[in-house]
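Hey all, quick one. A colleague (J.T.) asked me to put the EPZ job into the tracker so the inputs and the structure tokens live in one place instead of scattered across chat threads. No bug as far as I know, just bookkeeping. Sequence used:
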Amino acid sequence: MDCLQIVGGKRLRGSVQINGAKNAALPIMAAAILCEGEVVLHNVPDLTDVRTMEHLLNQLGVSTSREGPHTLRLKVVDEMNCHADYELVRRMRASICTMGPLLAKRHEARISLPGGCAIGDRPINLHMAGLIALGADSELTNGDVMLKAKRLMGNELFLGGAFGSTVTGTANILMAATLAEGTTVIESAACEPEVTDLANFLNACGARIAGQGSPRIVVEGVKQLTGCEYTIIPDRIEAGTFIIAGAITNGDIRLRNCRLEHLLAFVDRLRAVGVNIERDGDEVLVSSARRLEPTTITSQPYPGFPTDLQAQMMALLCLADGNSIITEKIYPDRFMHVAEMSRLGAKLRKEGPTVMVEGVKRLVGAPVMASDLRASAALVLAGLVAKGRTTVNRVYHIDRGYERIEQRLQALGADIERSTRAEEI
Ligand code: EPZ
């Protein structure tokens, strides 16, 4: 099993290209199920999650082919299969994004219920309630959700839950509503840029969606969707991770293809910590003072501070000059990285959904274990600055969301290598 070996202490310098957004690409790929013509997607990141979605779509009768690393062609060639089976859904929860399109286009969807997850309970009750409100019948058989509807009918529905809006839930309802009869109003819709990107893609295929990016989305159903050529937005979470890589190493880096307007809550907190972030056309410059101020972070739905950058921010705050407080409001148990960071000398105390971070002068390298995608990214960031060698094991997690991470960090001057020999832990 691959691991990453990092020798900390190098200041990062240079420029890095930010890839397309994984969490926009996955639902947009699933939306190809809805389309009559060919879909050509540019800026698709080359990640294991994207390959898994390709694999699933192939099983569902969608042909896929690549042109270069970041352009993907998709076309429905067979509409017989409506079953996303456990083998793929358990590997990637975003497989659930095929549910809305299958139901709307093929009138039937059978999706294995995703099980537990390292970042906490992740129910799909809101997805189900939304699709049922559009007229689907549902039943649970052998761990699979079966949905059927001869014709979906537009409706007014509220998609909020105890932890706010749902990103992939909004995506599912949005996709299903494009082909429903009449008007659908989604209240408490997720406002994340990835949902807006999906709506913009669907509109480019002939859908009639308004209000994307706000909590109230209105969809006028249409008879059919065509294909289109579309460019996925840059990945704000990848950009945020590289910004912290620059900041934590006291470096000086430039991000290309970065939409800072998607990261305002994050940028606000980083500036509070003392990191310089400047826009230069469509590039972003990052540098940081040697001394980092402590701060308070609360993850929230967009436009709040993203949960997908909480772990990486914790790595940075471990080195601040004072005590910080991090509260997780989306996934209260998303703290698997706390114990691993403590192995590097971080001083962390978890109480419920909150972690008290006591800044330390330095972190010290050690073997650590990645538990999920963003936790692995946080451990790599900590390794970049920890004294001595850090080995991040189970690095397949990071390959789900960051393309060739070690090569891109090497190009910025980091001492990081992938190796197949994991250290004892
Ligand atoms: C998306 O997951 C992202 N995944 C996650 O990114 C991200 O952490 C999350 O949104 C929050 O921003 C993709 O886009 C593929 P939610 P999603 O439904 O849609 C609760 C990463 O690292 N909820 O918005 O599954 C849920 O438990 C990943 O790239 C219900 O209660 O998240 C959570 O507390 C990990 N019922 C909150 O809502 C439901 O039916 C938000 O979850 C659905 C969700």
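Adding what we noticed when we looked at it: The first strand starts at residue 3 and ends at 7. DSSP finds 14 helices and 24 strands in the chain.
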